[in-house]
What does this fold into?
Amino acid sequence: MNRLRTSYPRLCLAAMPFWLALWPVVSHAQGDLPGPEIAAKGTPSGAAACASCHGAKGEGNAAANFPRLAGLPATYIAAQLQNFAEGTRQNPVMAPQAKALSARERNAVAAYYASLPAAGGMPLNKPDATTKDVGQWLATRGRWDQDLPACVQCHGPAGAGVGTAFPPIAGQSAGYIASQLHAFKDGTRPGGPLNLMGVVAKRMSDADMAAVADYFAAAKPVAQSEAATSSAREKK
Ligand code: HEC
Ligand code: HEC
It folds into this structure.
């Protein structure tokens, strides 16, 4: 029990060299079709325009549970596209899109979406939250008797994401977040480095997933580097 508690940060750090080692491989090749063109028009090989589902600015479509792509780390996007193409992350809509792209095109479109700004904002925290506020409690404190760390320990304050391995989750739709938690638990989506998300999701009930999904969906996305200044920017 205690061992797991102290080893999470170390595990996260331990994974970094692998991601850094992958970076030259992922970033080296330049796309034949530029990222913005793939996003806006799709490819002759059969990928549909990403923007038709993920929005003109990569903002996603909350009603349809199409995730936001703007501001996600490039290596994360490229890895997800590879997972869809290889079928380890199972989704009937995204699989044909990802399969139609070459590795270079995946990297190009990933770099493009990573470069788009995420809107500013912060989640609302109730200062007097109790364990009954399941969403906020799990997000910010976790549940240690189950060895369930707080989501923000890996996904950063406000769920804005950390580095390239821990994607932002704030501002994705509740339906999308919950569906991904179920997918991690059911094994239809790989759990990421060291299966970190697989371990987390297996400890959550359906009600936990729904509550924490609502909590992060109510938070507006915030760029990692701008967490401190975004609320000021948003007011303009
Ligand atoms: C027909 C609609 C549609 C089109 C077109 C489409 N997507 Fe998707 N995309 C989805 C859906 C639905 C999901 C959620 C899949 C899931 O639940 O795992 C998704 C998920 C993703 C994800 C995972 C995001 C995350 O946070 O893990 C990436 C990356 C992605 N799409 C990139 C692209 C790119 C790049 C293109 C263009 C080449 C594209 N998509 C075209 C519907 C679409
Ligand atoms: C020990 C670290 C860790 C903790 C704690 C953690 N996550 Fe994650 N999470 C990850 C990693 C790593 C990924 C990326 C997985 C991948 O590469 O596919 C991820 C991915 C996700 C995704 C997919 C995002 C997307 O764009 O598709 C969601 C949703 C998510 N986490 C929600 C949560 C929630 C909710 C909690 C708290 C209950 C949580 N996570 C706690 C490490 C963690």
